[in-house]
Amino acid sequence: MSGHSKWATTKHKKAAIDAKRGKLFAKLIKNIEVAARSGGGDPVGNPTLYDAIQTAKKSSVPGDNIDRAVKRGSGAEAGGASYEALTYEGYAPGGVAILIECLTDNKNRAVMEVRTALSRNGGSMADSGSVAYLFNRKGVVTVPKAQEGGETTDDDLLEVVLDSGAEEVNDHGDVFEIVSEAGDVVEVRTALQGAGVDYDSAEVSFIPSMQVPLDVDGARKMIRVVDALEDCDDVQSVHANGDVSDEVLAELDRD
Fold first, then answer.
1. Average pLDDT over residues 28-42
2. Distance, CA of 239 to CA of 226 (rounded, Å)
3. What is the pLDDT averaged over residues 171-191?
4. Beta strands 242-244 and 212-214: pairing type?
5. Right CATH number for 135-208 from 2.60.120.200, 3.40.50.280, 3.30.1540.20, 3.30.70.980?
6. Cβ count within 10 A of residue 38
7. Measured between alpha carbons, how far is 231 from 51 in angstroms, rounded to an integer?
8. Closest by alpha carbon to 152, among 114, 191, 199?
9. pTM of whole model > 0.90?
10. Which residue, among 172, 171, 170, 101, has the nearest Cα to 132 in the 3D structure?
11. Domain boundaries, the chain
């Protein structure tokens, strides 16, 4: 789930120890296969593949699984599937806009899974274009505050990445989120690496241009929809424009 709010960051950190780790691994492996198929199996010359591999490694996906995914995607090994990228739009209860990215080898199955996950949890599908305009495609690099040489600050990061196209650095508790234009994400990541700054992930994602403030009940309903969507095999990522305050997040954490 990428909502780029504090609760979304909390969910991201919990993913590594989540009971659905196997499902997360499968999604990361699929990203690697698709990146290798579209840009070749050499991560040095394929930055999308490089970032997909790094994200998988950060999530503790075994190296053998990563290597096989690269080989399947690049055609060096048989067994790779032909995945189609699809984006669906919908609403969670309370008018929260939802953007759902899928990679699937069966379009009919994918849309059925998405429609069912939404409808069973109080959400609904939306017409194409009715939700997408509420999101901007951006580069997003997540950096942990705790670094090998001590804790980093937003000023430290700005000094490193400002000339590489970074637009803003957002504080999300234990991590910083560096936002750039989609085409600058590799430059931002490279600048961090050059400065010896560790990062958790670098990706092109969707960030809401406007958010809907949610109370505890609204946040709980949105999270229920997002969780159901993320549990679908064909869904790779879910983006929502619900805004959850620190106070609401703290109350949710007590549940």
1. 93
2. 8
3. 92
4. parallel
5. 3.30.70.980
6. 12
7. 23
8. 199
9. no
10. 101
11. 135-208
